[in-house]
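HUMAN: Please help interpret these tokens:
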Amino acid sequence: MSKIIYDVNQRFAVENGVPRLMSTNIQVIEGGDDLMSLAISLLTQLGFYDKFEENRTSQYIGYRLKNRVKGSKRYQLILAQRKEGLYISIPINYFDSELLELQCATIYCYGEYDEKMDNILGKLWIFPSKEDVFLSNLPPRYSEIFKGEITGKFFLNDYAKGSAFVDNEEIFWSEMLSMSPKEFNIETLGDISTYLLVQEDKLFPYAWQVSISSGEALKEFLGHFAKIIIEAK
């Protein structure tokens, strides 16, 4: 059985010492697909509305600075409710130093020359509360690549290694092997409950987007980035 949490607000008027119920407002803040209400509640608690104004449309809710530069129309936070969950978009710059970016190199040979093309396999945001779980559930191959890091850019290509004797001295070498993006499956990386996939927002090209389907994930992600956005200069 799923848990549903309600936020109930009641207004009373007191006449001759007798309270009389004026109105009742019941809002679902967690349960079912209604993560939008929970997000708005969290933003209110964090004081987000003190600095940002809300613009509601049929597709999304966007937040802009109240005292912004004239002509600036960019949102600093965008919420969009979909059947599969709540989509949250924020400008790319807020993700600086926050993401684990996975890449691979595909090497094309043209006669005597090789051309190396870098491909982005995925961008991940690791939940701070689950960093240890993420790292402990990595396949050994990836553990060797990340070396305990959960942010930064990493190539997932294999390496050919060997040694050769030159003038009676053993020389060790390693060479990156070409890898196709099709060889990588994000689900084989580790525990998928420990991170969120970060993708481009097609409607707002200056922002990146995540999809969230649980209240727990929403609280940690939005709580983390809302504070960064509020404190940004």
About this structure: The two ends are 45 Å apart (CA to CA). Residues 215-231 form the longest helix (17 residues).
